[in-house]
Design a protein that fits this description.
Shape: globular
Helix content: 25-40%
Order of helices and strands: EHHEHEHEHEHEEEHHEEHEHHEH
Bound molecules: 4'-deoxy-4'-aminopyridoxal-5'-phosphate
Number of helices: 12
Number of strands: 12
Structural class: alpha/beta
Largest sheet: 7 strands, mixed
Strand content: 15-25%
Distance between the termini: 28 Å
Radius of gyration: 21 Å
Strand order of the largest sheet: 2-8-7-6-5-3-4
Length: 366
C-alpha cells in the first residue's frame, strides 16, 4: 500500500498509538478532579501544551479543541465578540479551508466587511493583504500552507506589516498543513489553528495557540474547563497521542524537497502534464493530467493500492473553487491530482506512482 494522501489525513504513528492506549488504560482520570488521578491527567495536558509550544518556538497559551475546524470557528466567531469596538473589517485570502470560508460568509451576512485576496496579482499576496488593513480592520485570517496546492503564505511578513499599520488588528493563521512539515520562518500570528491527525496523531483532537494578551470569547459553554474558554472534559488520551506525534515528527525538509523534485522531473517527461503548485510546501504536489478526469485516475491508482487525492478531501462530492483561485482552468481542475508525502514516503513509492500515472494516461486519455 502506497499512501500519498497525507494532506487529507495521516496514518497514526506508533508513538501516538502507544500514548493513546497507555493513557486510556492507566490515566483515565478527569483533569479537573482534585485527587491524584486528576493531577496525573492534568500533568499530561501541561506536558503536551509545552511540547506544542516548543515545536512552534513560541510562548503563549494552548487550548485543546476537537480539531482545526473548531479552532478556526473559535477564532472567527470568538475574536469579533471579544473585540467588539476594534472595527468591522476582516481581511482573508480567497483560498481558505471551508472551516474559515463558511464562518467568513456568516460574518459577512452579519454585517462585517469581509475582503478576500487572491494569490495572483502584480504585487505579492502578502503586500496586497497588508494594503487592505486600516483603522477599521478587526482581524486578518490567512492559511499558512494551502491544503490543495501547498502554496505557502509568509504569515510572518503579513503579521509584521499588519501590526505596523494597525497594532490592534488580530492576525489568525490556519497552520494545519504547515505544522511540523515546513520551516517556521514564515509563521507568526496571534492565533494559530492546529490539528493532530495531519501529523500522524489521532483524529478529533486539535489545538488553538493564543499569543499572550490576545483574547476570544468561547464557542462552547459548560463546565468551565480550559480557563472557561473551551468547556468539556479534556480527552487526555488523544491529547497524549497528539503530543507524542508532535515529538515523533522528524525534520523532513530535505527529504520532501528531494521527493518533490524527483516526482516533478519524472512527470515533466510525460505529455500533457501541468503543475498547479507554485511557491509550495514540498510535501504537496498538485498537477493535472490532460484528458484523464481526476476520479478516473484516482481509482485506477487505487487498483494498484496507490492512494492520492483529486484535490481537497474536504470537498468530496463538491467542486472546490480553490484551484481556480490559483489560475487553474476548469478542465485542468477536473483532471487535478494532489499527492502529499509523509516521513515514510520513499523514492520507490514515487517510482510506482509515476508508472501508475503513465499507464493511466495510456489507458484513459481521450
Ligand atoms: N484547515 C486546513 C487547511 C485543513 O486542511 C483542514 C483539514 N482538511 C482543516 C482546517 C480542518 O481540520 P480538522 O480535520 O482537524 O477539523
Amino acid at each position: 500500500m502506497i499512501y500519498l494522501d497525507n494532506s487529507a489525513t495521516t496514518k497514526p504513528c506508533k508513538e501516538a498509538i502507544r500514548a493513546v492506549a497507555e493513557n486510556m488504560e492507566h490515566n483515565f482520570g478527569n483533569a479537573s478532579s482534585l485527587h491524584k488521578m486528576g493531577i496525573n491527567a492534568e500533568l499530561v495536558l501541561k506536558d503536551v501544551k509545552k511540547t506544542i509550544l516548543d515545536k512552534l518556538g513560541l510562548t503563549g497559551e494552548i487550548f485543546f479543541t476537537s480539531g482545526a475546524t473548531e479552532s478556526n470557528n473559535t477564532v472567527l466567531f470568538g475574536v469579533p465578540k471579544a473585540y467588539k469596538h476594534n472595527g468591522k473589517k476582516i481581511v482573508s485570502s480567497s483560498f481558505e479551508h471551508p472551516s474559515v470560508d463558511m464562518p467568513l460568509k456568516e460574518l459577512s451576512e452579519a454585517g462585517y466587511e469581509v475582503v478576500r485576496i487572491s494569490p495572483l496579482g502584480e504585487k505579492s499576496f502578502e503586500e496586497r493583504i497588508i494594503d487592505e488593513v486600516d483603522g477599521n480592520t478587526l482581524m486578518v485570517s490567512v492559511m499558512w500552507v494551502n491544503n490543495e496546492t501547498g502554496y505557502i503564505t509568509d504569515t510572518a511578513k503579513i503579521y509584521n506589516g499588519v501590526k505596523r499599520k494597525n497594532p490592534k488588528t488580530i492576525v489568525h493563521v490556519d497552520g494545519v498543513q504547515g505544522f511540523c512539515k515546513i520551516p517556521l520562518k514564515t509563521l507568526k500570528a496571534d492565533f494559530i489553528s492546529l490539528s493532530a491527525h495531519k501529523i500522524h496523531g489521532p483524529k478529533g483532537i486539535g489545538a488553538l495557540y493564543c499569543a499572550k494578551g490576545s483574547r476570544f470569547l468561547p464557542l462552547l459553554y459548560g463546565g468551565g474547563q480550559q480557563k472557561n474558554l473551551r468547556s468539556g472534559t479534556e480527552p487526555v488520551d488523544i491529547i497524549a497521542g497528539f503530543g507524542a506525534a508532535v515529538k515523533a515528527y522528524p525534520d523532513c525538509t530535505a527529504r520532501y524537497e528531494s521527493l518533490n523534485s524527483r516526482l516533478s522531473e519524472k512527470l515533466s517527461t510525460l505529455e500533457g502534464i501541468t503543475f498547479n503548485s507554485f511557491n509550495n510546501a514540498k510535501n504537496i504536489l498538485n498537477f493535472s493530467v490532460r484528458g484523464v478526469r481526476s476520479e478516473i485516475m484516482l481509482h485506477f491508482l487505487e487498483e494498484r493500492e496507490i492512494y492520492v487525492s483529486s484535490g481537497s478531501a474536504c470537498s468530496k462530492g463538491k467542486k472546490s473553487g480553490v484551484l481556480s483561485e490559483f489560475g487553474v482552468s476548469d478542465s485542468d481542475a477536473d483532471s487535478a491530482i494532489r499527492v502529499s508525502f509523509s516521513p515514510e514516503t520513499t523514492e520507490e513509492d514515487i517510482e510506482a506512482l509515476f508508472e501508475g500515472i503513465k499507464d493511466g494516461i495510456i489507458r484513459f486519455r481521450r
